[in-house]
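User: Modeling request: complex.
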Amino acid sequence: MIRAAMRIALFVTCINDVAFPSTGIATVRLLERLGVEVDFPEAQTCCGQMQFNTGYPAEAAPLAEKFARDFRGYEAIVVPSGSCGAFIRDIHPKLRESTDPPPVYELTEFLTDVLETEDVGAYFPHKVAYHPTCHSSRLLNLGDRPTRLLRRVEGLELVELPGAEECCGFGGTFSVKNPDVSAAMGADKVAHAVETGAQYLVAADNSCLMHIGGTARRNAAPIKTLHLAEILASTREAVAA
Amino acid sequence: MSGTYLGMPAFPAAARVAVQDTQLRANLTRATHTIRDKRAHAVAELQDWAELREAGKQVKDHTLRHLDHYLLQLEANITAAGGHVHWARDADEANRIVTELVQATGQTELVKVKSMATQEIGLNEHLAANGITAYETDLAELIVQLGHDQPSHILVPAIHRNRTEIRDIFTREMAAWGRPAPEHLTDAPADLAEAARLHLREKFLRAKVAVSGANFMIAETGTLVILESEGNGRMCLTLPDTLISIVGIEKIIPTWQDLEIYLQLLPRSSTAERMNPYTTTFTATTPGDGPANFHLVLLDNGRTTTLTDTIGRQALRCIRCSACLNVCPVYERAGGHAYGSAYPGPIGAILTPQLRGTATPLDASLPYASTLCGACYEACPVAIDIPEVLTHLRERVTENEPGHRAEHAAMKAATYAMTHPAAYRAAETAIIKTRKLLPRKRLPIGPAKAWTDTRDLPELPPQTFRQWWKDTHR
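Assistant: Request completed. Predicted assembly structure:
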């Protein structure tokens, strides 16, 4: 699929930058493969969601301002996180006085709505279950965008996750303020994922996957977690190599 | 609010106990998932649900903006129809008014229609302290009362009990309150219902005084509306000589036409029915028909304070359907008691800290009893944006309550680092370097301990995305 080159800015998110750089790298490789010119404004840091959701909007406001400043002048912003994407879209306007940044697209929105593509030429010969994270489904209304993309991945077998719409229990600082309920929810999510027989549990948010994956590893559950971008970036050549 | 819950531990500690109670977890999961699925089906039947929901929201918002007008209209109409209206600033005042009204009848017992307002003010306990016995007649409230228990759900107060537990409670306790349970009572639902029917029937036939709440009050005619499933409420509303209704001031709607919206929204959202079995409407007194004496106690108890908060006030739209409880993954695991008030679940997490304030550790912990997953907002038939109110109340807690100093300092430091690129890069490097020194499992203190008690930390990669970008794209 070839389109006139489009120049976008990647907002990688702070957690991906430090803990899951492979997701950021996959996003860049995927977009470049699709003919998109990707830039990474290096001043970027964090959207401020943790501060806001924990009850510190005054600490989140400077980050909303900074975000608008850092991304001024681009055609669009792509973010490989449903949660950060929803926060920027829904809450930043309430925190920010400066001019609006360019439109923000969660990765699957950008692929299906802007690039109007579902087959991104990916190859991933594994059994996969998709977990629609709460903010990607209820705040961004991603709907079937992620699964439309996954269904077109060569070799991939998509299986249905029981109780898919139920929260995994991460919830930002909820995970440490209410650790027992959080852990119980995480354990149920892992059990459902294992039930499917999938090798990978996939989602559009690494923060949720950090919680689900951490729970799975602690319990030696036979399931791995992986960000959607890394599947879409995966190609036959990459798998062979 | 009621003193019943004072001294309860904060939500996380209470939830920890509930999470470990496997019987409770099983009861709650089975019950909430059943109602959840049925509700989704009942709602999907209506093609104009979104419009109904919007109408339900707007009528409530309009009424709350003109509450003074409609309350006075209601009072005038009830007075003209032979009723008496009392205004109660708080729980103490409401309890005192009701107690005096009952004492004036010379009675020492009364029957009750299921009512959230009376749970909120702890009426039963107050009446008991004054020598008056209040008999709950809603089946689930009866189970709770006989079990010396607290309700754990708005619609299904005994949701935490299964059939066998209910059979045991009936067999053990009914005799002390009136007609004993039949011998060799089984746990078949029909047998349990028959035992309750026999036990309650003698109460209905003897009662001279009844106490109720109301789902709606219609200002234009001074009419109260009560929706129920069992018909026990109607027994209380029609048989006794004196009826005392205690109703929160936010339960008012302007007209009968407005009621049409809620008669569709409420049953489908609560019991997943197209229409509830019994809807009783009554306007003060009618000679020769029903109670000869009618008193309405209008309850504020924190509602006007809540109304002054432009974000928090949307909680007053609530029609007590329980849809938010039934879809809440936190409620499902923590159970209703952990919320420490008559209002459990997501609605309780935003209502209780507004009605009672956030001065106790329990009340200050309630706004944090949510992952902000948004399932409650999606299910709410009057579109209360519960996650929005939760984060708003978290701000109130961090500003006003002690114990947030260290957290505030950490948040400030994080924002400083994130707005100063050099500091951010230094912090990133520090995280990656120190991370290698720490184990992935079982960190000793603080949030790190809370995480690693049950979860591994992710393995941090040797280089950040930022570093990779520099190496490959510059």
